[in-house]
Amino acid sequence: MAARIENLNAISDRYDVVLCDVWGVLHNGVDAFASASDALSRARENGLTVVLITNSPRPSPGVISQLRMIGVADTAYDRIVTSGDVTRTLIAAGPKKIFFLGPDRDLSLLDGIDVVPTDVSDAEAIVCTGFFDDEKEVPEDYHEMLAGFSARSIPLICANPDLIVERGSRMIPCAGAIAAYYQQLGGATRIAGKPHSPIYEASLVAARDARGGEVDMTRVVAIGDGMPTDVRGALDYGLDLLYISGGIHAAEYTVNGKPDEAILNAWLERENATPKYWMQRLA
Predict the structure, then answer these.
(1) I need a labelling partner for 4 at 20 to 30 A (CA). Which of 131, 143, 200, 263 fits?
(2) 52 near 81, Cβ under 8 Å?
(3) Domain check: are 78 and 103 in the same one?
(4) What is the pLDDT of residue 141?
């Protein structure tokens, strides 16, 4: 059973490194959560190294700019590793002719990589960062195109494995939803972001570099709100986990505006998930 804690400081003396999710923990896509930035800033003041680990399809420089724009404090982290960062390796190792599925704002993912964006008929791989319009579209809107790709055995490289994220008060589908649908159609996917190991390996390298020495895995805690990504990824990698209950799964166990601890723990048990700690919002 996960232990409820009131703030990150309550467990800071047990850890040297924090691997913290971004969307749903530090902000909701519109507003920054000031208490979360403050908590991570205090952890760093106490000697912990904080690496933000996000499934954003953008390389880290673009995410840093986005965080500043939203209002996340620079003092909240030492390093940031994105799904876009680790996905670039998959893209570089794949076919050169790619169909880019996602908004134009994500095209920086391809910068400096020897690939040629092309149309559907000539593509030898799909690079998916999300929907062309995530305000209106669902995976089924791409059925004909994706079924055609699957019939040709075209691999889909997914740069953002998240299924959904918060955007203000709404839930918005992500590239992971397209990848899951593509798999249902028989298509093959290649993914390096959470919950897969490459992004954790890269994050621990970043932590080691920031600290200037090796990292003891028993003194690393991950923080996140997404069951299929943050939770599965951290637990499968053997990390302690602080679960943030107020994120995308809050409706599963919220009663009268607050998480019901008994319902929450029953839900975690059904999901076969064993976070070490939980709190509603990072503080």
Answers:
(1) 200
(2) yes
(3) no
(4) 97
End-to-end CA distance of the chain: 21
Kindly state whether residue 243 falls inside one of the protein's structural domains.
yes
The parent domain of residue 157 ranges over 87-191
β-pair partners for 100? 127
Are 90 and 157 in contact by the 8 Å Cβ rule? The answer is yes
Please, are residues 220 and 16 in contact by the beta-carbon 8 Å criterion? Answer: yes
Q: What is the pLDDT at residue 47?
A: 97
Q: Select from 156, 191, 226 the last residue of a domain.
A: 191
Same domain, 74 and 214: yes
- State the Cα–Cα distance between residues 55 and 36, nearest whole angstrom: 18
Q: What is the pLDDT of residue 166?
A: 83
Q: Note the pLDDT of residue 257.
A: 87
Is 201 contained in some domain? no
**How many C-beta atoms surround the C-beta of residue 52 within 10 A?**
28
Structure tokens at 136: 């209106």
Which parts of the chain register pLDDT below 50? none
The residues, ordered by sequence, that sit 6+ positions from 210 with a Cβ below 8 Å of its Cβ are 49, 51, 78, 79
How many other C-beta atoms lie within 10 A of the C-beta of residue 258? 12
Say which residues have a Cβ less than 8 Å from residue 6's Cβ, sequence separation at least 6. 279, 283
Burial code of 95-113, b = ≥16 C-beta within 10 A, e = fewer? eeebbbbbeeebeebbeee
Assess if residue 273 is contained within a domain: yes
The count of other CB atoms within 10 Å of the CB of residue 41 is 16
pLDDT at 275: 98
Residue-level pLDDT at 1: 85
Q: Is 138 helix (H, G, I), strand (E, B) or coil?
A: coil
In contact, 109 and 84? CB cutoff 8 Å: yes
Residue 45, classified by CB atoms within 10 Å of its CB into exposed (0-12), middle (13-18) or buried (19+), is: exposed
